[in-house]
User: Fold this.
Amino acid sequence: MFAQYNPAIYTGMTSDEGVKRNERRKPIRYRKNEEGGWEFDEKGYPIEDPKGQPMLALDYERLTFQHAADRKVIIATYSAGAVGTTFTKGKTVIEDDLAEDCIEEIQMEDRTHRIDHEHQTHHTVKYYKMISRYPKKFLAEMERRWVRRTPNGWYEEVFDRETAEEEGLSTAFETFFEQGTYDEVKIKNLQVQRHMFHLVNDGIADDNILNEGQLPFQGID
Assistant:
């Protein structure tokens, strides 16, 4: 899907590779300047030099995204890209999945929107979150179905309205789906965590409150 943008890959799989290697799996050496930084060609790629030094595969992906004009996208994981990295070339961040907690989320956002004297930065960065939602047609159908919990802890469907009303049964919607998807619950928790995080940073509270107000997910994951 991203092939036309020549994406950089910044993931744990990349870190497992160690240094950047050629097709024969030999480490590639790259030239450094007098200040100890990497030198780049006119296309924005590190210059190979037999007398140079090996480069970590992760650094190669990050630096070519930052410098090379033909690398329009970087695909990163939270674990690899949340702390200590710079992706200031990016103008837009799309979260394909939600962060584990608000601290990881804030760290991730700061990778793109930060001061960088070497590379072009942007006064605004757009952020998008991809959040799963139940289709409205599906939810409407779940409001017309009743469920009964069995002694072994499972649920069975009850098709007769009169029986359901006599037993005071709940619908499948009320039992599993009214709360929303896992993502919808998770994003509410992240918002609460951010509020708590600011209280901690302002010295009003300590770290013990970070997990307060968290909603347990009641639906089907």
User: Anything to note?
Assistant: The chain has a mean pLDDT of 90. The first helix runs from residue 12 to 16. Residues 16 and 208 are 35 Å apart (CA to CA). Helices lie at 12-16, 57-67, 78-81, 102-110, 136-142, 161-167, 172-177, 182-201.
